Amino acid sequence: MFRLKTLGGVALERDGMPLEGRASQRRRLALLAYLAAQGDRPANRETLVALLWPERDEEHGRHSLSQILYALRSDLAPEAVLSGIDELRLNPRLIGSDLAEFTAAIAQRDWSSAATLYRGPFLEGFLLDDAPELERWASAERTRIADAYGRALEALATEQAQAGRLAVAADWWRKRSALDPLDARVACCLMQALVAAGDRSGAIRHAAVHAALLEAELEAGPDPAVAGLAARLRAEAVPIPERRPADASGLGAARRAEDQVSAARPAGSRETPRFWRLPAALLAAVALFLAIGSFALVRGSADRPAADHRVVLLGRIEGPDTALALAVREVLQLELGTGPELRLLPGSAEREGRRLMGLKEDSVLPAHLLQDLAQRQGAHAVVTGSAMPLGAGTQLTIRVYDPKDGELLLAVAERPRRSEEVIEAVARLGRTVRSRLAALPSDSSIRPLPMVATVSLPALRNYALARQAAARGHRSEAVMLGEAALVEDSLFPLAHYLVGDLLWFLDQERHSEAHLTRAYELAGRAPLRERLVVQARYEQLVRDRPDSALAFWRLLRAAYPDEALAHEGMAWTLRALGKHREAAAAADSALKVDPGAVSPNANNRLYALLAVGDTAAALAATLAMRERAPVQAVEAAFVTALVRGDGEAALRWADSIPIEARAYRQHIALLALGRIDDAATGLAAVRRERHTAQSYPRALLLQATAIAATSSRERHEAARRLTREALTWLEVADLSPPAIGRLAERIACVAAWTGDPEMIQRTRRLLETRDAGRDLRSYAIASATLNGALAFARGGYARAAELLGQSLQESFFSRSAATLALLQADALSAVGDTAAARRRYQEIVRYQIPDGDFETWPVPARLAAERLSP
Q1: Cα(608)–Cα(576) distance, integer angstroms
Q2: Euclidean distance between CA atoms 628 and 246, whole angstroms
């Protein structure tokens, strides 16, 4: 039984395995996809000719269609495609399709099966350059099928809501929103589902995301329906007291404040005893003081220089009279915020900090939680106080604490005798606190901690240190700090995310997937910003779907333009998709947003530029990072010299590289110079190094490539030995799918040159075992390469050239495109297509084929140059 996959890509399988041969060619897949979309309806031959060969006349078009049908029936089965006088349709008993199953599930209202079957857009990434009508048809079908998928998601959400599973219903609406993020109706439905599930703040945040997306994608303002719903949710979250006419004395404003406090008191509770009543004159003075001072507060906060700020968190003013305590706090806040010496944390920052700590916005914080909140926000001091009746007057006390250890830094007090003197006394106390705080030594090391959700301050500190270590390129240290954060808070989503992300680069794939999966499971309770970060990296590293990850990174960037991880994540993802120019731009944006994150972003920018051979821009990037990251600058100079074809300079730079990576770099430079025997002698030193887990097998395969693509039988046997060692290493390695895929491709190329089909089949079994039926993208692309290599090894050079050309149309992270292109060019040469082979050799030599693994390029480039020589 054959099965055609059309949702989320295109592939033809037999018994779950990708099919080789002519049936897998793109135009033949297009024909099968069209027939699958027709279902029971037969397709007209004339229509098929117009779709697939629009540039040909009817006679030649029909001849081409007949050839495809002959090939399909030969490769699949004689009755695979049923034909009438002028009509065609698939034989469903021989060829099934995910589209047919999806359509049947929709018709039967089996929404769960439909949602499972829909793995992505119809014919995603599939294109025939000379068939525009086919693309228009596919686009219409893509929309129709996506609409059906959207109906399935909405039906599932409705079913779950009716069953009382409100959080699950909200998840289905999230999937529906991801399908069409600009749809205002869907946005409103998601917001209502979030409210029903108890996540009112999440609903309000989604309105902000929707508005940001409209602005970014359509340059349009917020949708009225979404903005209106968000406004109602905000209003319901904070009850607004009844409005009363204001009087000239300001008493009306004070009464409204008092009413708001009363409204918040539980029904039936007793009013707090008042030792004395606040007279109207005092209330009027407070209102006038605040009205006059508010302009100065706003203006002062905007104009003062950030470098001289001492950040202050203003806590609660205690006292039996709530109205008086509120008035004292307002006046104190105004006084502390008018000068340039201090910067008060805004209420929005405090509310956000509370939310990330899992605290209610209006809860009274004990001292230790107030200190935690201040440390998260990078505050230098916490200010609290009290306003207590004492006889006929009031005892006012203001205290200032160090948030790091709770030490009392200063305390000031006054005792106004009359209520009319309270406001001026508070103002004097505020000025005293401001001047005395300004005179204290400033601690420039205090910085805000990352604004991420965790209940544990020690966990957050370790997470912040892990982020800093990762930014410096110290990944092992960062992992230890991230794991220390998880010891403090095992439910910390972004700590799991960070550890999983780092372990991916440290070639510990199983542990990486475990942490990223845990982050994904926990992210539902995290803020939207963190959910998008986790979802994006999970899609790329666990599900191996960089295209899907890119959509989430773009959502994150649109909603939070200042989020450095959005730009950094886009750079990683775009590199995986082979969009290197865009990746360099994203990495540059990440550096501008977060200049401290040198290691990931400067390297991403450099490597993306080198992948397209832009050595001038890469050299400029090298010079720019010399002072901030001298070690990376040396390595950047090394790889820039490699891509420029200057092997001698690369070898000199390799001598300056840190000892743990020196032998590996020297080996590459020696092979670039054609010094194969010297490079072979250095393999033992590479093996002893602790640069990365992949350094040694990469060196083995580069050495094998350098000697395999020759006609020497003795050299071929040496190449086989090296390749067998690399494959044996790979079979037990704990690597990611892209790493397995790119090494498997290079093993297959060497095996093709040396005529070793058994090695290629052994490599295929490795890919199948690692994939375990998940249909991961990197393994699928690598399998296509192995098909071409196997054809080459068996002498099917024309088929090999065709399959390798198809495989090179795709990309995954750090793939060695030049090695594959060299094998393809050799296949073209073997069938006598000298002109096409020379063009391919020239493209390799001139670096006209973008190469994600540019370190290997010098070897195929040297070999291609030798083949061009007379």
Answers
A1: 10
A2: 59
Q: Give which of 713, 711, 708, 659 is closest to 688, Cα–Cα.
A: 659
Residues constituting the chain: 870
Looking at residue 439, its amino acid is: A
Ranges 318-332, 470-484, 745-759: which has the least confidence: 318-332
Rounded to whole angstroms, the Cα distance separating 232 from 236 reads 6
Report the pLDDT value the prediction gives residue 331, as an integer from 0 to 100.
83
Q: For residues 279 and 288, give the distance between their C-alpha atoms in angstroms, rounded to a whole number.
A: 15
Q: Judging by beta carbons within 10 Å of its beta carbon (0-12, 13-18, 19+), is residue 232 exposed, middle or buried?
A: exposed
Whole-angstrom Cα distance, residue 515 to residue 492?
A: 11
CA 311 vs CA 357, 383, 434, 435, 729: distances in Å:
20, 11, 11, 14, 55
Residue type, 629: A
This prediction has a pTM of 0.61
DSSP state of 275: S
d(CA 610, CA 643): 7
Residue, of 770 and 362, whose pLDDT is higher: 770
What contacts 533, CB < 8 A, 6 or more positions away?
A: 494, 497, 556, 563, 565, 566, 569
pLDDT digits (tens, 9 = 90+) for 701-740: 999 999 986 666 778 889 999 999 999 999 999 999 999 9
Nearest to 189 by CA among 181, 269, 827, 838: 181
What Rg do the C-alpha atoms of the chain give, in angstroms? 33
Is 56 within 8 Å of 131 (Cβ atoms)? no
| Extended beta strands in 266-380, E state | 310-318, 342-344
* Residue in 740, 747, 742 with CA at minimum distance from that of residue 811: 742
The one-character DSSP state at 380 is: S
Residue 674: left (phi > 0), alpha (psi -120 to 50), or beta? left
CA pair distance 123, 26, nearest whole angstrom: 11
Task: Assign 657 a pLDDT band (cuts: 50, 70, 90).
Answer: confident
Measure the CA–CA gap between 419 and 429, rounded to whole angstroms. 16
| Residue given tokens 């108890």 in the structure block | 198
Cβ atoms of 35 and 137 within 8 Å: the answer is: no
List the strands of the sheet with 43-44, edge to edge.
Answer: 43-44, 87-90, 81-83
CB 453 within 8 A of CB 493: yes
Question: Which sign, positive or negative, has the C-alpha torsion 60, 65, 70, 75?
Answer: positive
